[in-house]
Design goal:
Length: about 375
């Protein structure tokens, strides 16, 4: 039975000022790609619609957190030795909230070392992997300081998903391998706006092997921050239709994943990707994130599928394209990608990834892994 999130870490044994020792934790956590998109929030950090994602294997972040001082209530931290690291605002937002939930975390000075397996400046969003890895480290450090050592993995994953959501919504889906749903949905037992849940029990084994080739169309950083993008949904003219569509698409995507119906999954996932961009284009101000090469890839993927190759595309809030294909067609799909799509990628960059098994604790960050 899962405890209410964080209940064990709220209480502190004795006087927390007297906690002494060295505390550190290191985790590797993957990125994920949404097949049904989270776009727009309600009441703070809760999703406007439910979303469904596949956790990746090779696109991950490794993070190590060291408590360099405690009892000083400084709340001060550095990332990779940099006190002005671009990742710091999101970390501070998470840490401020966590400090109010787990008081001992507001009494520490932290050093964070974090590296991504995917190369810098590939335009791949790293917030899901980065904030899930960081959350796992912070919860471990808090448990160590509070001498709470008996939290079962299911409960700690649940806590981490609940907390990671505050740093970045999509990060709450990275806590589990395979497929996860975030957002309260009638018919999905245990689903919640507060955390993601794994739904692998209802997924066909072939779909657990799905491949995702990430085509780097542009290496430039995102031109639309997700914070601004989500907030533009508040007064979006299509908000009502979007909510209904996401609920229907979630239902269809889950039944396609259960039945190993690749064609149905392709049609739902592509509709979700194009809807995400249509919502962004029709917001105020409207933003166009696709590049000419993005559109060309989409045409070529659809043409390949029409001629019998099982491939579909999906998009994040950027120009890069994820091309998905079953394991059984990997050789043919990768030949098609190499011949027809790779020439459209910036510097010929493609990251060949697949469905992964979720975060794991590590001894330390290792740039060579
Ligand atoms: O987690 P955020 O706030 O960076 O939002 C990410 C939203 C998308 O990546 C565009 C879609 C999704 O569901 O992952």
């Amino acid at each position: 039975m899962i405890q209410p999130p964080l209940s064990r870490l709220k209480t502190k044994p004795g006087n927390q000022e007297s906690v002494s020792g060295t505390f550190s934790a290191a985790w590797q956590s993957p990125s994920n790609i949404a097949l049904v998109k989270y776009w727009g929030k309600k009441n703070g950090q809760f999703p406007l619609t439910p979303s469904l994602s596949m956790t990746l294997l090779k696109a991950f972040t490794q993070t190590r957190v060291d408590v360099v001082e405690n009892g000083a209530a400084k709340g001060f931290l550095s990332v990779n030795g940099d006190e002005n690291h671009p990742f710091l605002p999101k970390i501070k937002q998470l840490l401020t909230w966590l400090g109010s939930e787990i008081p001992i975390l507001s009494t520490v000075t932290l050093k964070v070392i974090t590296i991504n397996s995917f190369p810098h400046s590939t335009g791949i969003a790293s917030s899901a992997s980065g904030l899930s890895a960081l959350t796992l480290c912070l919860l471990d450090v808090a448990s160590e300081m509070l001498q709470v050592s008996d939290i079962p993995r299911a409960e700690s994953d649940h806590m981490a998903s609940y907390c990671a959501r505050v740093g970045s919504g999509s990060a709450c889906r990275s806590l589990y391998g395979g497929y996860t749903v975030w957002g309260e949905t009638p018919g999905i037992i245990g689903s919640s706006d507060e955390f993601a849940i794994p739904v692998n029990h209802s997924i066909h084994p072939e779909m657990m092997l799905l491949h995702d080739a990430i085509l780097v169309i542009s290496e430039k950083p995102k031109i639309l921050s997700s914070t601004l993008g989500h907030s533009a949904m508040h007064d979006h003219p299509f908000i009502g239709g979007r909510i209904l569509q996401a609920e229907k698409n979630l239902d269809e995507a889950l039944s396609a994943l259960a039945a190993n119906d690749f064609g149905k999954l392709a049609s739902v996932a592509e509709s979700e990707a194009l809807t995400l961009h249509a919502l962004i284009m029709s917001a105020n101000p409207g933003v166009l994130l696709m590049k000419p090469a993005t559109v060309e890839v989409i045409h070529r993927v659809r043409e390949a599928r029409r001629t019998g190759l099982p491939v579909f595309f999906t998009l994040d809030a950027g120009a890069n394209v994820h091309v998905m294909y079953p394991h059984s067609s990997a050789v043919a799909a990768e030949k098609f990608i190499g011949d027809a799509l790779l020439p459209l990628c910036e510097n010929g960059r493609v990251i060949f990834d697949s469905c992964g098994s979720g975060p794991q604790p590590i001894a330390d960050v290792n740039p060579a892994s």
